[in-house]
Amino acid sequence: MSPHWKSRFLFFFNTICLFRFAAFTCQSIASYPHPEFPCKPPDHHHYAFCNTSLPVATRAQSLISHLTLPEKIQQLIDNATSVPRLGIPSYEWWSESLHGIASNGPGVTFNGSIQSATAFPQVLLTAASFNRSLWYLIASAIAVEGRAMYNVGQAGLTFWAPNINIFRDPRWGRGQETPGEDPAVAAAYAVEFVKGFQGGNRRVGGGNGYGFGGKRVMIGDGGRDELMLSACCKHFTAYDLEKWGNFTRYNFNAVVSKQDLEDTYQPPFRSCIQQGKASCLMCSYNAVNGIPACAREDLFQKARDEWGFKGYITSDCDAVATIFEYQNYTKTPEDAVAVALKAGMDINCGTYLLRHTQSAIEQGKVHEKDIDRALLNLFSVQIRLGIFDGDPIMRLFGKLGHQDVCTSEHKTLALEAARQGIVLLKNEKTFLPLNKNSISSLAIIGPMANKTELGGGYTGVPCSPKSLLNAFPAYAKKTTYSAGCLDGVPCNSNAGFTDAISIASEADFVIVVAGLDLSQENEDRDRYSLLLPGYQMALITTIAAVIEKPLILVLTGGGPIDVSFAKGDPRIASILWIGYPGEGGGKALAEVIFGDYNPGWCEENFEFVNKSGTRLYAKKNSSNFVSYKTAVSICRNCMNSQA
What we know:
19 helices
């Protein structure tokens, strides 16, 4: 090729490559959009609140000084309005991340380049591991996925988790979301979750096999108290009722003694703030000793003055409205707005402050300084998150994207969490583990066995949703299934029993999966009974009566279930509790039943095998489980031993 033609060819080739690169780049930008952000050059980067060299408080005060009163009011709701003249886009404060990025809040969407996120086990099951490092790792993994979703415009940076209320009433529909009824466990969980989620000890490189560990790069570097994401400890305080009889969470008054408040309800929140350094508190719907939780100035001041809280306080959604509309604590909506703002609440999830703050000001019940105080807390957290630092893609976590969500490491961590949380409640004559080499057929029965919705409340879109049933063909030559209850978990008839009996009578071993799902316990849904729903108990005893070998009973759900009928029944050899195990639940359950993993063990005497609280394991494929005796009554010692 002559030099002349060679140069023309290279020019032509490079031009084609340039157009192809431009097209690819445009396609990439369209496929993976940036989040909107303030302080964009050339028109809006010169403000003092964009100057990263200034202290956080100075930048926040600068931003407040540029806003008109109507603009300030529009920042007091979760869907904060944009301020186009300052180049500030709208911002949605409400995103959820209880045990994985969830779709409950409007701040998260799975309609984009990221269409799923790792579904870890529900909190109560994870808490049953009594493993603080595991809790930290899960929160860290969720944070990576949350920040990645923010970078592509599918999430915010402020997430309203964890739920650290005390699970005192076993009928409570949201007990599944909490670490349980022990204040020490809830406090320890709060600390680990918040630290891991906010990036308090964020490390990169090296690590522990799950992608975490190595060099610390966050809090304290540069003295700016940066946040990777913001965690919110909720619901402050004494909240454990949804809807029961004539009471709802909106009008319930929790009557709590001073000692009970200090010993039971407040320790998780105190630890969340003092040790976890949470950047958000959420006040609850209920009243505490006659005063709505979002109007408890004494509790808010204690959090800030005694516990050192540095963050913002949000209401639960429409909890300001309930002050007037349900609790009748004030005479007007304006009074409700005034009492909440003056108590120290900073932002309202909902529109109540947007609709009534201006009239409250006109009536002299709220002053602009009350709003400025709230905005200082709100903007300070946003500044710590880097929202006013320019293009987030160019910042510390800017490289996180779709490739960092649903990774093999995160899914392995979800599996490990399910393994460690499963509890063996009964195992007569060491019936478990089963030997897969001697099993030709296995019958799986029960309404929850073939469902893929295994996360419980506040779940998003799992990476790899699989049923419990899906994991067992790897362990048995033949696996058969029957729901037993044709209408699912409610099990309002025995119409499906015949098919269940048929497959059970032909199998070598039978596993019955019974218990609860979100039709029985959920937000805004408490239970009236601790018994198994509908005909589930009849299904279990009917199957047990027709098979030759004892069956294995697996219990799902977060709330306690009365299975005393099964405890002394020799036809039911083993009982396992798996809670809401997330997307790795099926594999974890199969591994436990067939001896690849040893679960926690709970016995009546509530004592540890090892008094130091050390968890004991048998070797892989051992013929016997190690007896690991746990109970919430001794969790305080467990937490102290792992501190």
